[in-house]
Amino acid sequence: MSVLEFTTAFILILGVIFFAAGSIGLLRFKGAHSRLHALSKADNLGLGLISLGCLLATPNTATGFKIFFIWILALSASAVTCFIIAEWEMSHGDDSPNL
Amino acid sequence: METTVRIYDFLLVTALLGAAWKTLFAREAFTSTVLFVAFGLLMAIVWTRLGAIDVALAEACIGAGLTGALLIDAIRHFQEDSNLNSKESRLTFHMAAGVLSLGLFSILSTSLLNLQEPNKDVYTRVIDHMDVSGSSHPVTSVLLNFRAFDTWLELGVLLLASFAAISIHQLYDDGRGPDLMRPTPTAIKSLTRVMLPFLVIIGGFLLWLGSHSPGGAFQAGSLIGAAGILIQITNPDRRILFSSLGFRILLSLGFLAFLAVAFLTNLLQGNFLEFPQSQAGTFILILELAATASIALTLNVMFACSHPWTRGGR
Fold it and tell me: DSSP secondary structure string, A9-37?
């Protein structure tokens, strides 16, 4: 196993751990805001790590660019979705915190 | 390695069946819809595992993405409408849905019982004729050359669906425009600004990819259609002008392009939709471009017309 392969595997596994943590947080936390917090923070870190791991394993530059764009697009979509849900929850939700 | 892949496939199938089960038996319609989207995304991964990348792309774009958005929209209107949501009409709806589902179930199970060995011969025949098809991707060759007639009729179905949606919309339109969040949340506005160029470029990229690898008019059309829907969401006061000539031409462009090509090929070759071999690539490109425009617009019509009729109408 080369150094590159080892690094790739390490980063991918780290990414999966963050994804798992985010999912557990989504299931176990109480209230929409803390759930969103778990999802958007841990999952985005997981996504970043998995993208990075895949980037190291790509055969060519074109695929690398595609992975990079997938990362950017998923990141912005997740940030915006999280923001909209949080905003809705603030104004309509049952358990909106008094900030 | 083989075992790992088996375990992965097993988990995938379990998740797929679990999502299907939860979709059917969730207590809230909203939960069902979210699970239905998750089911669609899992289905897309299953199609990828089966090697059907084209189907996977279409499932992710239309099956999970667009249908999910329309369903969520429909649920909201359904719940807000006291006529539709009354106990009696809900019972009627449930009965009607049950009967229709039972019919579909019996048709599907009959075809499953009569399922025959996949016709291997068809695949070899497609591969043997690839050099005259005008495309180096078998799926594109089948969709736009060998079975172009089927695709033509599919575009006809889409056009008819648009007519139906527009007619119902015109019947109940009260001039108030779509029920969207006003003012548009800033986050959606900035997302639209970032996403629009990406959606159009990736749509064009998928269209171009269709000539030699998975991709094509349906996938490209749904991405460009999504761009249009984002524009609709961020500009709630701008309406589609259903009566304008430009709209009418663009909506029927895919169908009309097939019609024109059918006449042209009949004159040139003596057979409907039989492309001259040297020009097959050009014909496919023209049909794909026209189909992409119509599909993108059809999806926007579905979104634009899903609004006013639930407000009680006249």
Answer: HHHHHHHHHHHHHHHHHHHHS-SHHHHHH
